[in-house]
């Protein structure tokens, strides 16, 4: 009962969830791990990483940024594109500032990465950044982007947090508190005031704007809905990519990926593999065929790795106990071997 028969070279896992109305949903995730060569060839990796049952952080979940979101979740309204990367100075010649760029299909995003700086006193502005130290490479992580929390007051009620990036740097209730502290390394072009969190990585579920999408957990919810999600829940809560890093709808594979200054070579150009997965779920003698959508694309140039996760959700209502197995097969494979 509730078996997976996986006839693909990829890793797969399953679980049961309840939808917004409390009905059972059979969720299956298939995750493919690829090696991305410097010449743009994409090859299936020998080791296939299994779908995640829980999120993974860089350190303590409350004090570090999210690396990978859970793969077995409810239906997403689109594909998440996540990039775990570093900035590299062109020609391995240390520089104080490097522009990095990501393009997938029609989507394009540019960030500026600067070397380490500190806030210095400024008579006109209160504080201003020192000159950036030249660097050869720097990780593009939210710990190095604008954000953070201010716990300088002896009164806990006066503590403040930047909800969009609680683990960052540069946030304070007073500019005087910033003197001698690190200036964010990662920013958007033109954001000289350093007032917007910037990054390519995943956004944790308890950060804004995801946090607000979960809905209202008040007394009315506790009386009438618990343990179901609130009525004002939005599926956008499941999207962990930055809002400016999401395609319209779902990626299908075959999209061209281009990254600038995020590898020592300076340019990485490749194509997402095209994978056609088929699912057949058996309830006794009854069989249902269903498809999957590409939910998550994670690109990790430092590891020469690409992760692609497909997701299918089958509403089962009262048939959960009758579900025997899901057969996973691949109709067509268009990646290099």
Portion in helices: under 10%
Using only CA atoms, what is the Rg?
22 Å
Q: Note the gap between the termini.
A: 34 Å
Low-confidence stretches: none
Number of helices: 2
Q: Would you count the extended β strands for me?
A: 25
- Bin the strand percentage: 35-45%
| Biggest sheet layout | 6 strands, mixed
Task: Write the element-wise H/E pattern from the N-terminal end onward.
Answer: EEEEEEEEEEEEEEEEEEHHEEEEEEE
Shape: flat
Class computed from helices, strands and strand pairing: mainly beta
Keywords, separated by commas or semicolons:
flat; mainly beta; 337 residues; 3% helix
Concise synopsis of the structure shown:
This protein has 337 residues and is an all-beta fold. It has helices spanning 210-213, 219-224; strands at residues 3-6, 11-18, 24-36, 42-44, 56-57, 66-68, 80-83, 86-88, 97-104, 107-114, 119-122, 126-129, 137-139, 146-147, 149-150, 160-161, 169-170, 186-187, 256-260, 267-271, 275-283, 286-290, 293-300, 305-317, 325-333. The chain is flat and about 80 Å long.
Topology:
Elements: E1 3-6, E2 11-18, E3 24-36, E4 42-44, E5 56-57, E6 66-68, E7 80-83, E8 86-88, E9 97-104, E10 107-114, E11 119-122, E12 126-129, E13 137-139, E14 146-147, E15 149-150, E16 160-161, E17 169-170, E18 186-187, H1 210-213, H2 219-224, E19 256-260, E20 267-271, E21 275-283, E22 286-290, E23 293-300, E24 305-317, E25 325-333
Parallel strand pairs: 1-25, 7-23, 14-17
Antiparallel strand pairs: 2-3, 3-4, 3-24, 5-6, 8-13, 9-10, 9-19, 10-18, 11-12, 15-16, 19-20, 21-22, 21-25, 23-24
